[in-house]
Amino acid sequence: TVTIEARDVTFSFGETQALRGASLAVEAGEIVAVMGPSGSGKSTLLHCLAGILVPDSGEVRFGDVRLDTLGEAERSALRRDRFGFVFQFGQLVPELTAAENVALPLLLGGVRRGPALRSARAWFERLGLGGLEHRRSGELSGGQAQRVALARGLVARPQVLFADEPTGALDSLTGEEVMDLLVDTAREQGTTVVLVTHEPRVAAYADREVVVRDGRVNAPAGVGS
Ligand code: ADP
Ligand code: ADP
What we know:
Helix content is about 35%, strand content about 25%. The chain is of the alpha/beta class. It starts with a strand and ends in a 7-residue tail after the last strand. One adenosine-5'-diphosphate (ADP) binds next to strand 2 and helix 1.
């Protein structure tokens, strides 16, 4: 079963055509790496799939739901209830503690503070962050912050995790630790993952790689005919 799909999607930023007929279907539970050169349209494709941007033409489907025809309020609710996000620079709230940052998606989803913080804290041991629950997120190392961001992306058990260069700001060893955790947790939870990266070592964690060039999606060179 397909979880999330873009069909012939176009999107322009003013004069810049970022997507020119991009199609990608991701199966439930699949981990797909979206590769391609800088500026090719990877992030824009991820934003269209995640209902952050609305395509100029084409379709985006999440199961039976047409994301491209939903209003902003409905897309926002869907993102909150079904999707998780991890970005290149964790984008944690520096004034909040690490545990409060992880708890945010639950709090936004209406879970009360006590239970939300308990769920959040349960992630810390498992991500090798035991003892850092009360640290302000501005006081974490890059690798720690990115693991906290990963926990925040997964805490509400999303059906789809959208990860945009989640290791882009990390050295390669720390990046591999984050990817190990991302992939292990996604598999455990059955979470579908759309992973944007330009690093082959990171893409190697995925079940499948696709390449975006000039706003379209291709199979990687050497695959198929
Ligand atoms: P990638 O993720 O592959 O680096 P992007 O999807 O970020 O590519 O960008 C695709 C194209 O759209 C690029 O030419 C980029 O400069 C342009 N672009 C992306 N975001 C914006 C924006 N907010 N405003 C204007 N142009 C943008
Ligand atoms: P990415 O790693 O996704 O390629 P970039 O560093 O290209 O990110 O862009 C970072 C942010 O700047 C994104 O939010 C993107 O939408 C925006 N952006 C990218 N290109 C442009 C552009 N030409 N004009 C305005 N904003 C842009």
